[in-house]
Design a protein that fits this description.
Elements: H1 2-13, H2 27-31, H3 35-41, E1 50-52, E2 65-69, E3 72-79, E4 82-88, E5 94-99, E6 101-103, E7 108-115, E8 128-131, E9 134-137, E10 142-145, H4 170-173, E11 186-187, E12 192-193, H5 204-208, H6 212-218, H7 242-248, E13 255-257, H8 268-271, E14 272-274, H9 295-298, H10 302-305, H11 327-330, H12 343-346, H13 357-361, E15 364-367, E16 371-374, H14 383-389, H15 394-399, H16 409-415, H17 420-430, H18 442-461, H19 472-479, H20 485-493, H21 502-514, H22 520-528, H23 535-545, H24 550-560, H25 566-577, H26 587-606, H27 611-624, H28 627-640, H29 647-659, H30 667-691, H31 696-708, H32 712-725, H33 730-746
Antiparallel strand pairs: 1-6, 2-3, 3-4, 4-5, 6-7, 7-8, 7-9, 9-10, 11-12, 13-14, 15-16
């Protein structure tokens, strides 16, 4: 017995050595043991995320059909086994292109063309891929043109939003989340891609991590899994939901990438920078506005704070809901019999749209023209907040159409088929335009609906109506410049429960800083003193501390430079550079900062195929006095993305600054280069000013560049346009006044 016990213990105690790095083995290896899961996975959206264009995978009609948009007659046809499209290329000419890959399956499928492939490239390498805007509606089985949001006119061939532009590049915008073990492999020197993946779509190891160690352990003749590595995979099950949630989050969140190589588990904030509740992406109460991919919504929810995870509702392999209809919700929300799935709760006839849980608690917004996606913040409808703050609510989502009879005949047809989100956008854009039969604006008609819904809720629920404190009650007035709202925001930051989700607290901190609230740095410093605060909150606090006095900034940011989260460390490093404390750092403290700045550079270089990445690093190098490195970075930015604005202007400013300190004989050469860079930037900035006539900052930058080029009258027109768009902007008003003085003085 002792010998047997000893042998069992020895079997248990033996373990793989520390530092084992597992590798990818592919789904076929997984399927040998996991046949049930593999069967469920086959045909799922993950399985169909991307594929080679073949007779089996292409859904679109390529039987020599034509499709027109913006005056272009495009042709979709076959050339033997190849799928072809005749359309406008990057030079503006109509050409034939081979569709090499398909992207997605339902409710739309997109198609990709490979550019810049050279004969010496390995067969497994992928060159630059561009995603066609001509797309297939898999639901209604027809071609449609996927326009960029808010762009009604034809795109110029050199527009970044054109299908051949960088905004439609697979490697830049899509690849990470549609393939397994993707390596972008972009070379900024040659401006070329040698992209690879271990599997073309979202396969087993995209979620479970590389499985070579798991396979090795499974094939061992042992009674136990490894005491050091467990199953040799990412641990997605257990009492803590975070490993699973943070494994799904990278592809289901709107985020920036800080570091490559994430393989699953509870380390999201070491690899990704989740976007906060920006005004262009979320409504003021955190409901979805632009395409934000679920995670940022879900972490606002009560469900998240009750430890619900993705697989409580979704099958992890087929991705389908586990139960039909309302059963997905009532499977957990049973309570007393019939408490929720009955008219006494939802006040709608059974079987109607209003009786569906998701329509009240997860209203949808349609993206990509045909893809309705549900808000995962799983909230109680709050028409009372809509009335007070102008935020959306699920009741008005359906009932706003009740206002159609009140819209004048000239406009009614425009709104017959529009969904709620489109009404809201139209109201935002139309301003004071009267479209109602009684002279009402669209905003006023929507408000009437909100009030009607609020009255109905008051009648239905009376004293049982739930109206808990919501962060929108602080955030929306704060953005509107309400002086009292800062106090409400600061009070909200002291709450550590579901009423103040971390994404909302981070947003409130950013907004306090943006509004220039004097108390913001002290509030941020208090949060730094709370070690249990989430990395998102500490990251936002670090940014706010850049506003603090040198002593406060230095002591707090130095502490954050050693935080265990990469998100916090890198945010602190950036804040330190722009703070009053930077010049007070000792050599040892500068070395500490320099160590973290290497991580900051890694974050920039994840997007090394974008000019903005190199411009961002160049700006940091300028702050550090590393001018040669800054020059190299600006030149790389221009090489990588020659049609992007910004790099030439910033580069010219740096050279102009350096010219003052070079020998006099070298100065003319540098200043000639400055003029050359600004001349080259002018048409690019003119293009952007034309494309974005309502963005004051772009009009202002164009005006300044015209001024530096000596075109004073045109510069004044642009600066006045910027000041007209933002009349409260003192910088814009001052620029206009000074330029007028200069022009008058020359006359």
């Amino acid at each position: 017995m002792v010998l047997v016990s000893g042998a069992v213990f020895a079997d248990y105690w033996s373990a793989e050595p520390e530092g084992v790095v597992p590798t990818y083995v592919g789904r076929d290896t997984c399927a040998v043991c996991h046949q049930k899961e593999t069967q469920a996975y086959r045909g799922s959206d993950h399985d169909k995320a991307m594929d080679l264009a073949t007779d089996e995978t292409v859904l679109g009609d390529f039987n020599d059909v034509t499709f027109e948009h913006d005056g272009l007659v495009n042709r979709l046809f076959r050339d033997g086994r190849r799928f072809m499209v005749h359309t406008e290329g990057e030079d503006g000419r109509m050409q034939d292109f081979e569709v090499k890959y398909v992207f997605g399956v339902y409710p739309l499928q997109q198609y990709m063309v490979e550019f810049d492939r050279t004969q010496d490239m390995a067969s497994c390498d992928i060159a630059r891929l561009q995603v066609l805007r001509i797309s297939w509606d898999s639901r209604d089985k027809k071609w449609f043109y996927l326009r960029p949001p808010d762009v009604a006119d034809k795109l110029a061939a050199d527009d970044p939003l054109h299908w051949t532009g960088i905004a439609q590049r697979w490697q830049t915008m899509c690849a990470d989340c549609h393939s397994t073990n993707l390596k972008r492999n972009f070379d900024p020197e040659t401006v070329s891609y040698h992209t690879t993946f271990s599997e073309i779509d979202v396969s087993c190891e995209a979620c479970h991590g590389p499985a070579s160690l798991h396979v090795e352990l499974a094939n061992k003749k042992s009674l136990f899994w490894d005491r050091r590595y467990g199953y040799g995979l990412v641990k997605l099950k257990g009492d803590d939901p975070e490993p699973q949630l943070q494994t799904c989050a990278p592809c289901h969140s709107r985020r920036g990438v800080m570091h490559e190589g994430f393989t699953g588990g509870p380390e999201y904030c070491d690899y990704y920078r989740l976007e906060t509740l920006g005004e262009s992406t979320y409504h003021g109460d955190g409901q979805i506005k632009d395409e934000v991919y679920v995670y940022g919504s879900f972490i606002q929810s009560k469900m998240y704070h009750k430890d619900i995870r993705c697989t409580d509702c979704h099958d992890p392999h087929s991705l389908k809901l586990k139960y039909p209809g309302n059963e997905t919700c009532t499977n957990c929300h049973q309570h007393s019999a019939g408490k929720y799935d009955v008219p006494s709760h939802h006040h709608h006839a059974p079987g109607t749209e209003g009786a569906k849980c998701v329509n009240c608690h997860m209203p949808h917004t349609t993206y990509m023209d045909v893809d309705p996606r549900r808000d995962h913040s799983l909230r109680i409808p709050r028409p009372d907040l809509s009335v007070r703050l102008g935020t959306p609510n699920a009741c008005s989502h359906c009932h706003v159409r009740d206002r159609l009879p009140q819209i004048s005949d000239d406009h009614r047809q425009d709104f017959q088929s529009k969904e709620y989100s489109q009404w809201l956008l139209a109201a935002e854009q139309s301003g004071d335009q009267a479209i109602g039969t009684g002279g009402q604006t669209l905003s006023e008609l929507i408000l009437q609906t909100d009030q009607w819904c609020d009255d109905a809720c008051e009648k239905w629920y009376d004293i049982d109506r739930k109206q808990p404190l919501h962060f929108a009650e602080a955030l929306v007035p704060l953005r509107q410049g309400d002086a009292e709202a800062a106090k409400e925001a600061i009070a909200m930051l002291a709450i550590n429960d579901e009423r103040a989700p971390v994404i909302a607290k981070a947003t409130l901190l950013e907004e306090l800083a943006r509004q220039g609230v004097r108390a913001a740095p002290m509030v941020a410093a208090n949060l730094v003193d709370q070690p249990d605060q989430h990395p998102m909150v500490l990251s936002a606090a670090a940014s706010v501390l850049a506003m603090a006095n040198a002593s406060t900034a230095k002591s707090n940011l130095l502490r954050l430079l050693t935080n265990e989260s990469r998100l916090v460390r890198t945010s602190a490093a950036r804040a330190m550079l722009s703070s009053a404390a930077f010049r007070q750092l000792s050599p040892a403290e500068r070395n500490q900062l320099g160590t973290v700045l290497k991580e900051v550079r890694e974050e920039f270089m994840v997007a090394s195929d974008r000019a903005g990445a190199h411009m961002g690093w160049a700006g940091i190098c300028e702050q550090l006095g590393r001018y040669d490195e800054a020059i190299d970075a600006y030149q790389t930015a221009i090489r990588v993305e020659p049609k992007a604005v910004g790099a030439r202007t910033n580069f010219a400013s740096l050279l102009e600054q350096l010219a003052a300190n070079v020998p006099e004989e070298e100065r003319p050469r540098l200043l000639a280069r400055v003029r050359q860079l600004r001349k080259a930037e002018l048409p690019l900035l003119a293009r952007d000013a034309k494309l974005a006539p309502e963005i004051a900052g772009i009009q202002y930058r164009y005006g300044l560049l015209l001024y530096l080029d000596g075109q004073l009258d045109l510069a004044l027109v642009q600066l006045e346009k910027a000041a007209g768009l933002e009349p409260d902007n003192e910088e814009f008003r001052t620029a206009v006044a000074l330029l007028k003085e200069k022009i008058d003085g020359q006359q």
